[in-house]
Amino acid sequence: MALWEAATGEDTVAGVPARFVAAPASTEEASEVLRAAAADDLTVVVRGGATKLDWGMPPRRADLIVDTRHLTGVVEHAAGDLIVVLRAGTPLASLDLPGQQLALDLPLPGATVGGTVATNTSGPRRQAYGTVRDLLIGITVVRPGGMVTRAGGKVVKNVAGYDLGKLYTGSYGTLGLITECAFRLHPRPAAQAVVLRTAPAAAIGALLAAVRAEQVVPAAVELDAPAQGPVTLAVLVEGTAIGVRDRAATLAKVLDGEVTDTLPPWWGAYPWTGEEAGLKLTAALSRVPDLLGCGVALRGSAGTGVLYAAVPAEGAPTVVERLRATAIRAGGHGVVLTAPPPVRDQVDMWGPMPGLALMRRVKDQFDPAHAFAPGRFVGGI
């Protein structure tokens, strides 16, 4: 049986057409595919739900797309240990664990487990539960050439060997093909409430400081800031029914806001469309207000200092540099996640990266032939 088939016109990665497509159904099949790809000197790009294929730079070559659509399902669910092992192609939205949750929000419908890990996308509730890196406790990867590597395990406190899971998280598929992931789970909260307050951008700093001062332990503190106009704060509290009621009442008084049990429609969604550039901006918590009032739509986690910006294509290079400079002054950074091709060709997608030399050495060690997603990552890695 052939290991791959000819690509169609729809099999592209950031506009770069592929020659072949493979869809292995197991780690062993994936190993066989990548062993043959290395023998034929093929470059490889991994595709999950295709929700973030336009993130990063286009690959220099995309000979073979490895599609994870058959790598789906729950391998193991140890409910008593609050652990689940998932195949990489499993859509996050399909996961249903009675009484338990994998506390990863879903900013893009259709996103898969492997793609979420590869791009390190974490949503609003990272404030309470941690990021992808924090929840990932084990990983299985097929490295370039077909070697299967397993790191971590199925227990939360596993200190054997290097924590390679953190290395693969956010690597944009440049170090290998993720086939399975083990995650730490959390119980589903009995109740939740959201406190909403809309105010001018100039008032948001004081409101955020007031939330922090009350120590009500919110699960998330999100904001939605249109390019022009007032900003809406949404504070999520979770827990027991009585505890949620009391904490929500405290927040409503502090913020002079309203309490609801429904998340706002913009919750956890990126603010950009396909015609705009999408940026990830970070800042120290006390400096989050510095990012407001910049004339572009912003949305994200004010409680963790991670915001996302939508930049219109016209004049984007100038706006990107201004936003990045503002983020750096605020103790953070700015990365262009996605952009229309004309904008992508004019901007520095990643910005200055102090660890670039180390990243290059890691790439050389794990993928000596630079066959995996060549050019997709920072510095052309």
Automatic annotation (TrEMBL):
PANTHER family noted in UniProt: D-LACTATE DEHYDROGENASE, GLYCOLATE OXIDASE SUBUNIT GLCE
Entry-linked Pfam families: FAD_binding_4
Key words, A-Z: FAD, Flavoprotein
Species lineage: Bacteria, Bacillati, Actinomycetota, Actinomycetes, Micromonosporales
InterPro entries noted in UniProt: FAD-bd_PCMH (IPR016166), FAD-bd_PCMH-like_sf (IPR036318), FAD-bd_PCMH_sub2 (IPR016169), FAD-linked_Oxase-like_C (IPR016164), Oxid_FAD_bind_N (IPR006094)
Protein name (database record): Glycolate oxidase FAD binding subunit
MF term (GO), any: FAD binding
Domain called FAD-binding PCMH-type: residue spans: 13-188
